[in-house]
Amino acid sequence: MLAGMETGVSDIEAVVFDFGDVISQSPPPEDRARMERLAGVPADDLWSAYWSERRAYDRGVSAREYWGAVARRVGADWDTATLHGMWALDVGSWLHVRGDTARVLELLARRGVRSALLSNAPVGIAAALRQSPVMSGFEALFFSCDLGLCKPEAAIYEHVLEALGTAPERTAFVDDREENVLAAKRLGISAHHYAGGGDLVSFLVGHGLLDSSDSGAPTPR
């Protein structure tokens, strides 16, 4: 049984959330299809190049550099308007928020639980999220593009811990990628591998951050 489950007193001072596939949904098929049509290259080639160049983009290279590198990989000669279109469609594709996780964030905020965001994200997505109502309850937003570091590098977690002023064992972390969760655990952080809203609520209830009556609050999507 997790600490805090019996007493209702939490052993956690702050919860740090990933964004992609935790707060947001995966880019929907219709968004991906729009990008494929605009790119005008085989879909498999596009997505292979997209992910191959993504780490540098998350570390802070410009959109023009990133999409230029993707174009070179797929043998395309995209003009500036096409580069802009790919950038805009990509940013928008990551902004579809999960209703169940948004509800959890609302509950935590109402209870005064400290929370923060830690996301591997390029500049364009980070800029959009800074204006998002879903981010309003977070104490701090940490983006890889600002730090020049990406999960699962230990230094990015250490930066967050120092900025929040919390000990690893008093910090919870939620992410959908196993390698990011394992990296956090190696530092002593109480990390949860996100697999859906129900499991997330159970994790937070187990640490005394939500009540058991909240277990039915989110509607999984």
TrEMBL record:
Gene3D superfamilies: HAD superfamily/HAD-like. It comes from the Bacteria. CDD domains: HAD_sEH-N_like (cd02603). NCBIfam families: HAD-SF-IA-v3 (TIGR01509). This is HAD family phosphatase.
